[in-house]
From TrEMBL:
Alphabetical list of PROSITE patterns matching this protein: GIY_YIG
Gene3D superfamilies, per database record: GIY-YIG endonuclease
Domain GIY-YIG: 300-388
InterPro entries listed in its UniProt record: GIY-YIG_endonuc, GIY-YIG_endonuc_sf, HTH_animal
Annotated CDD domains: GIY-YIG_PLEs (cd10442)
Pfam families recorded: GIY-YIG, HTH_animal
Protein name, as recorded: GIY-YIG domain-containing protein
């Protein structure tokens, strides 16, 4: 008897990296020694699909074993003889006992596709029906299911303002082409140098045509002559959306029970070794002082931090959605690998000594955090040439 089972984890407090490490261990340690092994075992981050070649009782004892093997991780099991949902796919047996697949959408899915009038590059919006239809075609193993899911897609896209002809063209393109179109990506001549220009998207500015009309001029100018024979690629980064602008700030209230300032966690972590415990940070460039108004330590997440070279007193401001402890592993890695980052470049030359402080706890929202970082960076004047932060 074969039982298809999808397993997913339900403890999200773990840092994902640590978590996946643990799952790796399950795969290498526990499963190898299990008396009955799944016939397939496929994992996507922390969701696992496997086919079980034995009885449900044996399956439950495997699950118990797995959960006891790694304390702190709780795997929850969904299993069925006939049909199971895994990520966005339902895997089921048809009436001939053949395994088929179809699109799975969560009952709570509100189908909030990007609205047709949203301020995004036209190609992004116009390609959405095609991309969604392609996803459905890849997932649906029978023409009936494909047709059913495409009908639902048409309806949902219509409700999001997509004109019928845009939807129709996208779907038609998917239906007319072989499934392998996804791999026919446009390839560029490896000899061509590609220069990427990343910018925010402004609907009224046709950047592509500005660059095309001025490319010759750029190539002939002393500052930009390196663009000769280069292909300029434009990449758009996301603008602030209403959610970013309106979301309630989650900078926490001041914690009055513990002393304000930044302190070692006292577990002798990588951070403790380089930490300067203090109640304020001082700009070595303009003498300005920022008083720390939370209690912070090596494990505080969502932070802005300040690195100071004890010898030449040059400073660098950075932000992290993680703790300083985790962030310092990143800096340490950059230094070890001689990466081209301001911090690594400075501390890879001789005669410098690393010291770090946390300036403040800040928002979980990356955009808000980046803006906060910018204001601290301005206050402490850590931009080059006075400091170590690169000029924007
Ligand atoms: Zn520490
Ligand atoms: Zn230095």
């Amino acid at each position: 008897m074969a039982v298809a089972a999808a397993v997913s984890s339900s403890s999200f407090d773990f840092m994902l990296v640590g978590f996946v490490d643990e799952l790796d261990k399950i795969e290498t340690d526990y499963l190898k020694t299990a008396s009955i092994k799944p016939t397939v075992w496929w994992r996507y981050i922390d969701d696992i699909f496997f086919i079980w070649p034995s009885t449900p009782d044996e399956l439950f004892s495997l699950m118990d074993g797995l959960n006891q093997h790694t304390p702190g991780i709780k795997l929850t099991l969904e299993h069925s003889l006939n049909s199971i949902n895994f990520l966005d796919v339902t895997i089921y047996r048809d009436s001939y006992h053949k395994i088929q697949t179809k699109l799975y959408t969560k009952p709570t899915d509100s189908f909030f596709y990007l609205h047709y009038t949203s301020c995004h590059p036209t190609h992004t919006i116009n390609n959405l029906p095609f991309n969604q239809a392609l996803r459905i075609k890849r997932i649906s193993s029978t023409p009936e299911e494909l047709k059913k899911s495409l009908t639902v897609l048409k309806l949902k896209l219509n409700r999001r303002g997509y004109p019928s002809n845009v939807i129709h063209q996208g779907i038609l393109k998917v239906l007319n082409e072989p499934l392998s179109i996804s791999t026919n990506l446009t390839t560029t001549n490896p000899q061509t140098n590609i220069v990427t220009n990343t910018t925010k998207y402004y609907p009224k500015v046709n950047l592509r045509s500005i660059i095309t009309t001025n490319q010759k001029r750029l190539e002939n100018h002393g500052d930009t002559e390196s663009l000769h024979n280069c292909q300029i690629r434009i990449c758009y980064k996301r603008n602030l959306n209403l959610r970013d602008l309106l979301v309630k700030s989650d900078i926490p209230n001041k914690d009055n029970t513990k002393p304000h300032g930044c302190y070692r966690c006292k577990r002798n972590c990588i951070c403790c070794n380089f930490f300067l415990e203090s109640t304020e940070v001082i700009s070595r460039y303009n003498g300005k002082i920022y008083r720390i108004n939370n209690h912070l330590d090596c494990n505080t997440k969502f932070i802005i931090y300040l690195i100071t070279c004890k010898n030449c007193r040059i400073q660098y401001v950075g932000q992290s959605g993680n703790s300083l402890r985790v962030r310092l592993y990143g800096h340490n890695n950059d230094i070890k690998k001689f990466n081209d980052t301001p911090v690594a470049k400075h501390f890879n030359t001789t005669g410098h000594q690393f010291q770090v402080q946390i300036v403040t706890k800040t928002s979980r929202n990356t955009n808000v955090r980046l803006r906060h970082e910018e204001s601290i960076l301005d206050l402490l004047a850590t931009q080059a040439p006075g400091g170590s932060n690169e000029q924007n």
